[in-house]
Amino acid sequence: MLKCANRRFNNGSLRPIRHYDDIKLLFSLPDTVLLMNSTLIQMTLLMACGVVWRLCRPGGLTAGHTRVVLTSVVYYLLMPAMILEVLWQADIGIQSLQYTLLGWGSISFAVFCAWLVGRSFKLDNKCLGTVILASAFPNITYLGLPIIEQTFGAWARPVVIQLDVFSGAPYLFTIGLLIARHYGEEERPKSAWTALNAPPFWTAGVAVALNMNGAIAPEWLLGCLHKLSAAAAPLMIFSLGLALEWRTMSWRNMPYMVPVLLIKMFAMPLCAWFLAGYLALDAPHQAAAVLDLAMPSMLLGIVFCDRFRLDSPLYAMTVTVTTFASLLALPFWYKFLVQP
Q: What is the domain-level CATH number for residue 242?
């Protein structure tokens, strides 16, 4: 797939798939679904390492303490390095706006569907807020980035980064935060905009400014950024495994899984696919973006549930269930998106 995901000029440089011949070549591969399954197996094994760590506690380190350290390293160092590397060299323009519209439109549709289900079945506020967060916000980066990059190739990394930085994260820290605040409780109200004061957003701003001004990145700096960003994906997946916990499984919460799975694994990707058809994205970029929006529930939602006193056990269960359900749903959507 990597050979097909990047074509070479005569001078040996790489360019992303954009032309009809590239698309035809990519979609004619007979082993596309096998590649997707192989990628998911690799991701599952990395998650299993996190689960085993949770059970064995090497060196007396609990899963909770280990996850806090690893996610902090990723959030404050590795993710900014990856964002700077990708956005500094990315083709930022009309496509960035298209990814923004695609992300905001798809997430808004999922929010509406979850709200409609909650009002129809008269869920209490805490459950409704939790269901909305679990149904609408996908794990765009922590799970989406390694899967999309391994499946489509290195050219797809800017797709994931732009979806996260320009649509997923801003939506989460504004509209998502207001939803959690509305349906939950908060002792000390804070401005929704303060959440945007974070390393990934500052780094994205710097990277976009450097990109738009035509600044050339030194090779030594790109090499350093590349080494840092390469460590992000496996640590993200390992941390996800640390967060999965069977104790969150409860028969009391099982009925809530049905609408979450239907919205997260079916309705939202279908909406994204429909919207992408109107945004003039070429077929490979459309497939990568839609598949990224089909990822399971994000991990960060548990922080919102704890902060606003929503149903944290219910949200933790949705993360576990949707993550394992994605092992079946993602190959289906991949086959649907890339097969002619």
A: 1.20.1530.20
Model confidence over 100-152: pLDDT tens digits? 999 999 999 999 999 999 999 989 999 999 999 999 999 898 788 888 988 88
- The pTM for the full model equals 0.77
With 0-12 CB in 10 A as exposed, 13-18 as middle and 19+ as buried, what is 74?
buried
Residue 16 lies in a domain: no
172 in a structural domain: yes
What is the rounded radius of gyration, in angstroms, for the C-alpha atoms of the chain?
A: 20
Which DSSP helix (H) or strand (E) runs through 15?
strand 14-16
* pLDDT exceeds cutoff 90 at 14: no
* Cα–Cα nearest to 108, from 172, 196, 195: 172
Q: How many domains does the chain have?
A: 1
Closest CA to 280 of 140, 6, 94, 15: 94
Instruction: Find out whether 271 and 294 touch, Cβ atoms under 8 Å.
Output: no
Number of Cα atoms under 13 Å in the Cβ half of residue 38: 10
Q: What are the structure tokens assigned to 124, written together?
A: 């209490």
Contacts of 4 (CB under 8 A, 6+ apart): 17, 22, 25, 26, 29, 153
User: Domain containing 287: what range?
Assistant: 75-338
Q: Are 80 and 200 in contact (CB under 8 A)?
A: yes
